[in-house]
Design goal:
This protein has about 120 residues and is mainly alpha-helical. The chain has helices at about 5-20, 30-55, 55-60, 65-80, 90-115, and strands spanning about 25, 85. The chain has one domain. The chain contains 5 helices and 2 strands. Strands 1-2 form a two-stranded antiparallel ribbon. Helix 1 (about 5-20) packs across helix 2 (about 30-55), helix 1 crosses helix 5 (about 90-115) and helix 4 (about 65-80) crosses helix 5 (about 90-115). The longest helix has 26 residues, at about 90-115. It is globular and about 35 Å long. It comes from Flavihumibacter solisilvae. This is Membrane protein. Pfam families: Phage_holin_4_2.
Length: about 120
């Protein structure tokens, strides 16, 4: 699946989650597309740096600190995109968990249909 399709799926899932989760909101679907692009960039550039710096605490927590890093990435996207609003850390944490699970399931089902 190419990058544009994955970006659209992430934007659709994020936009849908904003209707379910009380602490997440988008002004428009265009903002959801921008957030999906910003999240892709942050996950590519910033997340590996955060993982390296927090490696000891990640080991101590048996990897659970990676959830905190994901929530921090969502909060960074909130600061960078004007039409995207996250109420706080716990909303960002729940949003990141659900976004990851749902997009992973969709991508996995797409890979099964390709083979």
């Amino acid at each position: 699946m190419n990058f544009v399709v994955r970006l659209l799926i992430s934007a659709l899932v994020a936009f849908g989650l904003s209707y379910i989760l009380p602490g997440i909101s988008f002004d428009s679907f265009t903002d959801a597309l921008i957030v999906a692009l910003v999240l892709a960039l942050l996950n590519t550039i910033v997340k590996p740096i955060l993982i390296i710096f927090t490696f000891p605490i990640t080991i101590i927590t048996l990897g659970l600190f990676l959830l905190v890093i994901n929530a921090l990435i969502i909060l960074m996207a909130d600061k960078l995109v004007n039409g995207f609003d996250v109420a706080g850390f716990w909303s960002a944490l729940l949003f990141s968990i659900l976004l990851s699970i749902i997009t992973s399931l969709i991508n996995a089902s797409d890979k099964k249909s390709d083979s």
